[in-house]
Amino acid sequence: MAPLEYDVADLGLAAAGVRRVEWAERAMPALRRVRERFAAERPLDGLRVAACMHVTAETANLLRTLAAGGADIALAASNPMSTQDDTAAALVAEYGVEVFARAGMDPATYDRNLAAVLERRPHLLLDDGCDLVNIAHLERPELIEEAFGGCEQTTTGVIRLRRMSAEGALKLPMVAVNDTATKRMFDNRYGTGQSTIDGILRATNAMLAGRTVVVAGFGHCGSGLAERARGMGARVVVTEVDPVKALDAVMQGFTVLPMEQAARVGDVLVTVTGNRDVIRAEHIAALKDGAVLANSGHFDVEIDLAALESLAVEVRREVRPHTDEYVLADGRRVVLLAEGRLVNLGAAEGHPAAVMDMSFSGQALTVAWLARNRGTLEPGVHEVPADIDTEVARLELDALGVGIDALTPGQQDYLNSWRP
């Protein structure tokens, strides 16, 4: 067997990484059961998998599951600030995964690492933001001949894939694992809600009770964040462009304002939309002294960083870990967290392992489904089969020791018939 190729910070961190991975595994019972099944059935034997994901302990447990199923895996980081160097070392030294990721790497290294995993000529692409798929289509179209599908686990990535599909540019069947009911409920709503608050508190040590928190975007992630901020005693203001979501926020008791007005009252402003330039120069110019800006959308484009730089007369880097302070011409200070990147991963550890247990169980089962259906799926964006989502929920309930009712034959007949 050829030696593994990798680019990690320090293999000497592997022992610490193993401890971190094993700690996360304790809270991932459903994925552990999937791994046991994969080890017995080997559904991925002989398949090469390229992944662009956050290099965290939870991701490591997903990749261990895929490896147990027979996959050869190469992993690149999907965010330079989210990589846990000890986890990366453990994946290489202990779990046999080729990893190309270092915490804090520059954009050139990030691009080089994405190219490295694609050099493995993967059969399956596991993406987090559509970067691998984008590069394969625009720069390495010959790879599409060997690849037969993949998964996308972010809202931003699914939006990109749907646009590619609508334009006839998507040449692979890609499964929107982001869009399952279990992921939207647990990962997006509960996971993003809690981990975003965690990142803000670690970076600032701020008190949220009695403060005004502005949440830009009231989708699954934004609604979860708004709920958690309100639960900590904050006054929560929501900004939205979708009338239906804005109405939903109003009916849940949140104040809804245009960003132009929200920027004037917010103490902490968090973007979670999947779009760019949500907080722009005119909004930055209206901020209160000491206002905190954070982003929990996938890419660092939701806050106009160029505008922030241009408006500042002084930048004080790292006034606290993951916290930069920008001083405007009139002396007002604006605090930016995690360089405008994902604050829950840049300033904290991302979602709790219990949340990722369901997301990654669904993703592992979807990868096996793709392998079984190789060559039968048309290019485009596919939904996760409903039975997989149901199975994930059942695995999690079983692991939690929770029992539920089953339909009686009479109830099943009633639901399946229109006759009285």
UniProtKB/TrEMBL annotation:
Any GO molecular function: adenosylhomocysteinase activity
Name this polypeptide is given: Adenosylhomocysteinase
This protein's record includes keyword Lipid biosynthesis: no
Reported cofactor(s): NAD(+)
Task performed by this protein: May play a key role in the regulation of the intracellular concentration of adenosylhomocysteine.
Cofactor note: Binds 1 NAD(+) per subunit.
Record pathway: Amino-acid biosynthesis; L-homocysteine biosynthesis; L-homocysteine from S-adenosyl-L-homocysteine: step 1/1
Annotated catalysed reactions: S-adenosyl-L-homocysteine + H2O = L-homocysteine + adenosine
Family to which the UniProt record says this protein belongs: Belongs to the adenosylhomocysteinase family.
Subcellular location: Cytoplasm
Enzyme Commission numbers on file: 3.13.2.1
Keyword Hydrolase found: yes
Domain S-adenosyl-L-homocysteine hydrolase NAD binding: 188-350
InterPro entries per UniProt: Adenosylhomocyst_ase-like_sf (IPR042172), Adenosylhomocysteinase-like (IPR000043), Ado_hCys_hydrolase_NAD-bd (IPR015878), NAD(P)-bd_dom_sf (IPR036291)
Top EC group: hydrolase
SUPFAM superfamilies recorded: Formate/glycerate dehydrogenase catalytic domain-like (SSF52283), NAD(P)-binding Rossmann-fold domains (SSF51735)
Principal location: cytoplasm
Keyword annotations from UniProtKB, A to Z: Cytoplasm, Hydrolase, NAD, One-carbon metabolism
Residues reported in the UniProt entry to bind substrate: 56, 128, 183, 187
GO biological process: L-homocysteine biosynthetic process; one-carbon metabolic process; S-adenosylmethionine cycle
Taxonomic placement: Bacteria, Bacillati, Actinomycetota, Actinomycetes, Streptosporangiales
Binding residues annotated for NAD(+), in chain numbering: 154-156, 188, 217-224, 240, 275, 296-298, 344, 351
